[in-house]
Design goal:
By secondary structure, the protein is an alpha/beta fold. It has helices at 17-29, 58-69, 86-96, 120-132, 161-175, and strands at residues 4-9, 34-37, 72-76, 108-113, 136-137, 143-144. α1 crosses α5 (161-175). It binds flavin mononucleotide.
Length: 192
């Protein structure tokens, strides 16, 4: 059975480069993974520990279920004002208190960095917060995929061969972090 790959964009923008990179990842991953794009970030209530009790707000229950079902989580987040977007940090805040054995704790995670400016501070924060979550960061799959809006095609994906090659490489590295091992994507598929 193909492992489940949850793709989480940190941007709510319609023409988001981070979401476009993950849509491209979704398509490239299909042969070896069961990729799912998380679409609930805008529906989450602001994190409030008082509400972290049963019954959970529906959007929180849905987020946690999607994380629990995933074998691997792959993020792509922009930087705003020198840090993670607030809406995305809210996603992570809701994940921290999940008591499930299938929560982010010890789950393989990585990120693609779609920024053309580095977004160093956002990714420092992402590393720190994923550390609080006790996630297992797959360093070799954390790759730079700098994308501008002009690279986004009518299909909402990115056709740039270098970006696609980086995505395929990240997927290949991630495949080694799950068991049973899926067939690694071939670099050839990046040319399609
Ligand atoms: C208000 C605002 C603040 C921003 N702050 C930063 C920043 O501190 N560092 C950075 O690298 N980019 C910054 N950016 C650029 C965004 O990260 C960039 O537009 C990115 O493409 C947004 O991600 P998206 O295309 O996935 O929506 C900022 C953009 C806006 C609108």
């Amino acid at each position: 059975m193909r492992p489940k790959l949850l793709l989480v964009s940190g941007s709510l923008r319609e023409r988001s480069t981070n979401s476009a990179v993950l849509r491209t990842t979704e398509r490239l991953a299909h042969s070896s993974w069961m990729p799912v794009l998380y679409r609930g970030m805008g529906d989450l209530p602001p994190f409030n520990p008082d509400c972290d009790a049963l019954p959970l707000p529906p959007a929180v229950a849905d987020l946690r279920a999607q994380i629990q079902e995933a074998d691997v989580v792959l993020f792509s987040v922009p930087e705003y004002a020198g840090d993670l977007p607030g809406a995305f940090k809210n996603v992570l805040d809701w994940c921290i208190g999940d008591p499930s054995s299938r929560s982010l704790s010890e789950k393989p995670v990585a990120w693609l960095n779609a920024s053309t400016r580095g977004a160093v501070h956002a990714h420092e924060s992402l590393r720190r917060v994923l550390g609080y979550a006790n996630a297992t960061l797959v360093e070799g799959a954390c790759l730079s995929t700098p994308a501008t809006e002009s690279l986004i095609g009518d299909d909402g994906e990115i056709a740039d061969p270098e970006i696609k090659q980086s995505i395929v490489l990240a997927l290949s590295v991630l495949s080694a972090s799950v068991s049973p091992l899926p067939t690694p994507c071939s670099l050839q598929s990046a040319q399609q």
